Amino acid sequence: MEAFRKRIAGVLWQGGGPFIVWALHFFGLYVLVAAGCTAGWAELPLLGTSLLRVLLIATSLLAMAWITWLLLRAHRGLPPRGSRGLLAAAASGSAWLALVGVVWASAPALMLPMCSLK
Predict the structure, then answer these.
(1) Calpha distance 54→48 (Å, rounded)
(2) Which pLDDT value is given to residue 78?
(3) pTM of this structure
(4) pLDDT tens digit string along 52-62?
(5) Burial class of 3 by CB neighbour count within 10 A (0 to 12, 13 to 18, 19+)
(6) Residue 73, Cα to own-chain centre: how many angstroms?
(7) What is the DSSP track for the chain?
(8) pLDDT tens figures, 11-49
(9) Which residue, among 93, 16, 105, 96, has the nearest Cα to 59 in the 3D structure?
(10) What is the pLDDT of residue 39?
């Protein structure tokens, strides 16, 4: 039973893991903006911009790196056949979609002024 559970969890993570990373990233951006605007991190200078923007960019880069690692992991080894081929295609597709989602969610952090919407 334990081996079956590990096998199912691995398959679910391989196919759905990138979407979980994207969701965590999306939630994390909202939490950082809420906390940062409340605490005044948007006014603290760091690396030529604000502390809040640096944290948002770092969070996005971390999520992109994690999803890229999952994407590379989906393509490792010999060319898969049969049901393994379908799983590899699903894992690759979900990783690409999640990567685009992270980039799309990160764009406002790079383009919009921090905490100035009233």
Answers:
(1) 9
(2) 47
(3) 0.82
(4) 999 999 999 99
(5) exposed
(6) 15
(7) -HHHHHHHHHHHHHHHHHHHHHHHHHHHHHHHHHHHHHHTGGGSEETTEEHHHHHHHHHHHHHHHHHHHHHHHHT-SSPP-THHHHHHHHHHHHHHHHHHHHHHHHHHHHHSPTT---
(8) 777 788 999 999 999 999 999 999 999 999 988 888 888
(9) 105
(10) 93
Q: Which residues contact 24 (CB under 8 A, 6 or more apart)?
A: 63
Q: How far is CA 81 from the centre of its chain?
A: 28
**pLDDT tens across 64-114, in order?**
999 999 888 877 754 555 556 777 788 888 999 999 999 999 998 888 888
Query: What token pair was written down for 25?
Result: 């990233």
- Cβ neighbours of 42 (radius 10 Å): 17
CB-CB neighbours of 69 under 10 Å: 13
Give the whole-angstrom CA distance, residue 67 versus residue 8. Answer: 20
> What token pair was written down for 30?
């909202």
